[in-house]
Amino acid sequence: MGSILEARNVEFEYLHGSPVLSDINFELFQGKNLGIVGESGSGKSTILRLLLGIRKPTDGEILFGGKNLSVADKKQAREFRAQVQVVFQDPYSSLDPRQRIDRLIAEPLVSLGLANSLGGNSRESRRRWIESQVEDSLRSVGLSTDSLKKYPAEFSGGQRQRVAIARAIVCNPKVLLADEPVSALDVTTRVQVIDLLKELGESRGQTIVMVSHDLAVVAALCDETIVLEKGAIVEKGKTSKVLGNPSQSYTRKLIESLPRLPH
Question: What is the pTM of this model?
Fold first, then answer.
């Protein structure tokens, strides 16, 4: 089976700026969670933007299903968004405070037109299909369907992040791109959300790309890890080897200096 996403010889620099990424190569396979770690400014967020199609490489390619990713290709862009969803860092800013939870979670189903192809022929059957998908997604993240008519302000940070995850998984994507998804949460809630992501990956067969500065989060969730330093990959491989027996002094420094989740 081929890779879902691939970065091939990727280079990136902003206009009139210095290079941000240099010679980035990796593949993402179904069922193999990937951690991307490094200090602030190492290029983690830029890689995420490239994987989302928000930015295009200055050189090299981002491949989706073996084809060059181009959000200008409407057919490919629709398929890409159905298969690749993102969970952002801050659950307070990623959810529109004016929208009820049911509408927030349903947004990918509506914008991608999935109800038209999967929900039946009548408007009523499509409405019921959307409702059932939203309810199933909400239950999957451990929240009651009583929450559906509420607004984000009525929830804690951890609950909001669960809502954001429910929205990301409602169309059953193959890949979840997680951008520091627990860094804005307290320690206990962080552990709960990481456990939730791990459980969802196992139960739904979803592959997670975890962008994080916290090695403990990556160790808990990811099969393989990439270590970035100043826009270049300095170490990559199985997480147990990269974090348990690093070959690079930079990786050893990260392990010694970054915070850890409690056991």
Answer: 0.89
